[in-house]
């Protein structure tokens, strides 16, 4: 038996007027998921424990079977794992964005944050900028590690887990009262601006009308994650397919194989077929027992607030990931159990995550049912199956 989780990030939503009061999942043309639903079981699952922040970090830990109340120690430490940062028990990991601040004001505190991603600057250019910062600011206590595009990591030896402002939450605002309360972090952000503002890469970016990457911004502090191997917990050899550092970090932390798929980029035009093929290959050729296939696109389209693109992302998940995976496993003669679900809702109306329950679909190729329902929020709720503890859903996948 082979096992799969297919995760459509942020796929759940609320009824939308322009879709005739249907949700994107309900409105989207998803023949494969509906077929699997009829032959399988649907229900609702509560992935975000009460009082925890709804995010892909907490929710995906849940879905993978790790109770976030026990195993979640912040987002940045998980990303740090994915970029290979060695963390000690006494280390604090922080996300270090390189952001765009306005430049016309007199003091650092008066500047506004214009872009949390510096125009999604290339990894190559941003690594050069981070090197310039590192040369001046790195010491025994603080170490910088380069990640992807504008996303980097700061490791703070014997640091503190502080409450820090997420840069994408305060776009357009004056930064004075958004800066870290800790003087060392605040000073480093200030100095990073002085280092970066006249860097040749930024002078060139401004000439080209691009946002300069002119300041560090620290957030997402956390301690070393205390995850344990997935195989130890489940006796299943597992692999992760995702474009996103966070999911790769969870895989590193749980000693799962991380599969790199060329052209998987977290966007609407990701390499769907490549992900599907990689999933079939790792199960059939590499003899893994379990694969987790994560698709970022529905969440991203939810953040963008585009109904049309979110529907498209869901249709792509159905036609270009789920269908070829099912066909590939059937062609290989494999029996399989599969659960399809979102990690959390990212309602178009809110353009951010909520902690509401999400619909799941559980399918077993060796135990076909004969239901009339389709896979969407309303019918999953009406089905009456409910998993109150998200981290226990995976037991249903592996049971019997
Ligand atoms: Zn999101």
Features:
400 residues; alpha/beta; Alkaline Phosphatase, subunit A; 2 domains; eight-stranded mixed β-sheet; 15 helices; binds zinc ion
Question: Would you write up a description of this structure?
Answer:
It is built from 15 helices and 13 strands. The protein is of the alpha/beta class. It folds into two domains: 2-72 and 227-398, 3-Layer(aba) Sandwich (Alkaline Phosphatase, subunit A); 91-223, no CATH class. The strands form two sheets. The protein has an eight-stranded mixed sheet, with helices on both faces. Strands 3, 4, 5, 6 and 7 form a five-stranded antiparallel sheet that branches. The longest helix has 25 residues, at 307-331. The protein is globular. The N and C termini lie close together (11 Å). The structure holds zinc ion.
């Amino acid at each position: 038996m082979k096992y799969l989780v297919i995760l459509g990030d942020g796929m759940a939503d609320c009824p939308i007027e322009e879709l005739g009061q249907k949700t994107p999942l309900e409105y989207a043309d998803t023949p494969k998921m509906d077929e699997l639903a009829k032959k399988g079981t649907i229900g609702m699952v509560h992935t975000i424990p009460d009082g925890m922040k709804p995010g892909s970090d907490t929710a995906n830990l849940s879905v993978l079977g790790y109770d976030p109340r026990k195993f979640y120690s912040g987002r940045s430490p998980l990303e740090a794992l994915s970029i290979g940062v060695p963390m000690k028990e006494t280390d604090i990991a922080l996300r270090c964005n390189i952001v765009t601040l306005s430049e016309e004001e007199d003091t650092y505190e008066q500047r506004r944050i214009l872009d949390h991603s510096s125009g999604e600057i290339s990894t190559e250019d941003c690594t050069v900028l981070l090197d310039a910062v590192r040369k001046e600011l790195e010491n025994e206590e603080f170490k910088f590690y380069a990640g992807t595009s504008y996303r980097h990591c700061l490791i703070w030896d014997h640091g503190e887990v502080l409450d820090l402002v997420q840069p994408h939450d305060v776009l357009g605002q004056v930064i004075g009262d958004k800066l870290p309360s800790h003087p060392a972090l605040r000073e480093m952000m200030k100095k990073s601006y002085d280092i970066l503002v006249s860097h040749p890469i930024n002078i060139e970016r401004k000439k080209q009308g691009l946002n300069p990457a002119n300041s560090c911004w620290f957030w997402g502090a956390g301690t070393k994650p205390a995850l344990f191997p997935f195989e130890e917990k489940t006796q299943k050899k597992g692999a992760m397919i995702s474009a996103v550092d966070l999911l790769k970090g969870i895989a590193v932390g749980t000693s799962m194989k991380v599969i790199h798929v060329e052209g998987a980029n977290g966007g609407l035009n990701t390499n769907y077929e490549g992900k599907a093929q990689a999933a079939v290959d790792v199960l059939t050729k590499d003899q893994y027992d379990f694969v987790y296939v994560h698709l970022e696109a529905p969440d991203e389209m939810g953040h963008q607030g585009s109904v049309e693109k979110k529907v498209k992302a869901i249709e792509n998940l159905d036609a270009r990931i789920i269908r070829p995976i099912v066909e590939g496993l059937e062609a290989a003669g494999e029996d399989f159990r599969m659960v399809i679900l979102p990690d959390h809702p990212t309602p178009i109306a809110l353009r951010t995550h909520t902690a509401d329950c999400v619909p799941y679909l559980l399918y077993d190729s060796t135990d076909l049912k004969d239901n009339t329902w389709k896979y969407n929020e309303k019918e999953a709720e009406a089905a009456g199956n409910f998993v109150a503890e998200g981290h226990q859903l995976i037991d249903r996948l592996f049971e019997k």
